[in-house]
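Work package 3, deliverable 3.1, input record:
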Amino acid sequence: MKLIIANWKMQLDIRESVALTHRLMQGLPFAHELVLCPSFTAIAPLHELLMGHSIRLGGQDLFWEEKGAYTGEISAKQLHEIGCSFVLVGHSERRKNLKETEAMINKKMIAALSGKLVPILCVGEAYKKQLTAGLADLHLRHQESIVIAYEPEGSIGKKAAPLSSVLKAHAVMRELTRKLLPGLKSKQLRVIYGGGMEEKLAPAFLAEAQIDGLLVGGASLTMRTFAPILR
Ligand code: PGA
């Protein structure tokens, strides 16, 4: 079973998020583990809808402090409280549009883990530098885990990277992560691919042992394009 993460970005309102989740629930069980990352406003309604179901929720971002005078921010604890178990960290759109730095991303990684969330660290072409910075001072307890999402910038919203280059990058990232986090067990680390994923490409990517799952943006917004990826 692989991990499929749907990143709905700022694309769906509450009504659309509920409707799509409803349709996904009707399609259960899937061949893979599914995590939905909707807009913050849709998390609570989806949590209610998903009670007792296997589909899980994730935030698209978090702030590194637990509480305080931080206007507009949301903490790991607050995300956990409304039903999230995952959170995206350092997505390339935030690195670019919000000027998120490696230091900020590292603090978010640490905060996510201490707030009982599984962080999904998004890295791009500069994955060596981004992993080294993002995973600094991270200490995982044995029940905790992380996800690394390799998303080459040129592929997001466009065409997926060639499978052979993804496999090479994943192997390097896995090895580097093990070096950076000594003692990490294989079940604590999942390396997934994102960027231009489409239903016709998904089977070949998911067939590879080196690819633990997919982070899907555009194709996760309709049942027509998303359901074939999940089956
Ligand atoms: P995409 O987005 O599947 O639309 O390329 C992936 C992402 O940005 O996480």
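Residues 3-230 form a domain with the TIM Barrel fold (CATH 3.20.20.70).
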